[in-house]
Amino acid sequence: MKFTYILPLVALSTAFVLPEQHVFSELAVESHRSADSAFDKLPSREQLVDKVEHSFEKLTGKFDQVVKCSKHALDSAIDYAAETGNNVAEKVHKTGFETSSWLDSNAHLGLNDHHHNEPNQTIYQLISTSKYTTKLAAAINEYPDLVVLLNGTIANYTFFAPIDSAFDKIPDKAPKPSKEFLKNVLLYHVSPEYYPAGKVLVTHTVPTALTVDTVGIGPQRVSTNIGLKGLTVNFYARIIAIDIFGTNGVIHGIDSLLVPPPNVVDIIQFLPGEFSTLELGLTKTGLLPMINDTSAHVGGTVFAPSNFAFQKLGPKITGFLFSSYGQKYLKALLEYHVVANQTLYSDAYYAVDSTESQDIPKGTFHIDLPTLLKDKSLNVNVARYGRIIIIRINGFSQVTIEDGIAADGVIQV
Q1: Residue 406 forms beta bridges with which residues?
Q2: pTM (2 decimals)?
Q3: What local confidence, expressed as pLDDT, does residue 6 receive?
Q4: Checking DSSP bridges between strand 338-340 and strand 363-370, what pairing results, if any?
Q5: Of 4, 90, 220, 348, which is the most exposed, with the fewest CB atoms less than 10 Å away?
Q6: Cβ count near 153 (within 10 Å)
Q7: Nearest CA to 387 among 339, 346, 354?
């Protein structure tokens, strides 16, 4: 396995391999909530909105004050985060977790698309002159077209900027990646759309500037997550500074490099603690190489049953399915979990026969997804309530971990 896949997969494994109750805690998602859950004890919507507005006004006010008195906004923001023990991330995490049921746009926070304290530098200029992003600037300078992009004003971009210490996580003896791969890594940190912190809080996936043939008509995406580490990207890269505005967009500082993800099958194989039974079933039925063959499909969605899901079937049924007598039933069962040529994220939808990707609207969204099992479809309902997104399949099965981003689609667990 290439070293470039190790960093995101090791970090991703912390989301999939933890005991189930920890997974629910990490991602703030539960498949069965009791009547006395923490969500039932939250204050009213009005109280929470007031609290969010106060928290963000206080937070952005402190950032504005620091930035206004500084010659360099990016340095100032990272200095502030370091001096306060990354209190920024903690506040963002706390605010997002407590109010995610109701926040469905940054308008609730009184935020808008105008910059605070009108900036006078582009994203590239901020990065190239910061003492914390010297390695990132050196990497970008290898690609003149990226310099032009990040200096351009045709769009308001979002850049998840890894600080210098993020590059130190690359193993010393790791082989040097190709220039093409490194460019893809850099593009994977850029979004052509504008995502200030308030919008990131209520978003599960963000489109990037990286386009790949294997995922379909839309761009590759990153996922955003709120958990014990605070606000993260792709489960592992922690956001340590927010809302550093440039004349052409916004920068968020992160502590790890974002590496384009591997294929669905590679992720399943790398996480045996969560998917060893699924991998065995796909191997026995001959479906594993079929799913891994990106020439046979463009994008896709795998509703991946975890080891725990198989355990719920009981030893007799599981034993029968994995016997020679039950193998045809096991194959049909697994085919019913795989959708080819249609990639359903929690807030976006790519279909190979469409001309463009589709955003999943706030509220409720219904779609029937044809599976590999002939003439059988999955009835999928997506309910969006701010950051809380509930995906139900056939009315009863609920996705517990959303948006395992893959190079050739997405995994919904």
Answers
A1: 409
A2: 0.76
A3: 45
A4: unpaired
A5: 90
A6: 11
A7: 346
